[in-house]
Amino acid sequence: MFKIYDISMTVQPGMAVWGRAPEKQPELRTLSPHPPDKDGVYESELRLGLHTGTHLDAPLHMLADGDTIETIGLEELVGSARVVDLTAVRDGIGRADLEPLGLVRGDWVLFKTINSETETFEDDFIYLREDGARYLIEVGVRGIGTDALGIERSQPEFPTHRLLFRNRILIVEGLRLKEVAAGTYFMVIAPLKLSGIEAAPARALLIGS
């Protein structure tokens, strides 16, 4: 029997958002409640930033001439992925942390760090350093998933994002990997079918034994 791991964040008021900014919180509003004395139609409305919770970035996020979200095909987001245990890292993930992992060309790699241990936004979250990004480009990975809300902190010129995007490496942020052991899984990343923009919220699943 196989097991399905939902590695997505739950979208709800009060969830972790970038910088703990109140204006980045999702908003749920009831448009039509059930009448107290009879059945009716219940409808709600959601206001949601595109980088809320688990989401897929498109190159336009950091590159003025970058591709938009609909250019990323589902075939690029479904298939084998490696969860790597980087819980010993205490600041940034660099080349020295990645070299022992035996990553190979074409890998999808998901970073399991101490970020997955908390449900709050931490300013000192574990991120991918520029030298780590350069190493992953040398290896030739296809995509990277991180359990932080961003793959890098607010660094000048955002070198990690821009290096990866310019080398057509996909970036998924906001994964939840606390209950997932290191290993190889079948991965499904399903972003909302949007167009002309720089990101999309996504449901993310791993399937393993």
From TrEMBL:
This is Kynurenine formamidase. Pathway: Amino-acid degradation; L-tryptophan degradation via kynurenine pathway; L-kynurenine from L-tryptophan: step 2/2. Keywords: Hydrolase, Metal-binding, Tryptophan catabolism, Zinc. It catalyses: N-formyl-L-kynurenine + H2O = L-kynurenine + formate + H(+). It comes from Paenibacillus pasadenensis. GO terms for molecular function: arylformamidase activity; metal ion binding. Its cofactor is Zn(2+). Catalyzes the hydrolysis of N-formyl-L-kynurenine to L-kynurenine, the second step in the kynurenine pathway of tryptophan degradation. GO terms for biological process: L-tryptophan catabolic process to kynurenine. Its EC number is 3.5.1.9. Homodimer. It is an enzyme of class 3 (hydrolase). Gene3D superfamilies: Putative cyclase.
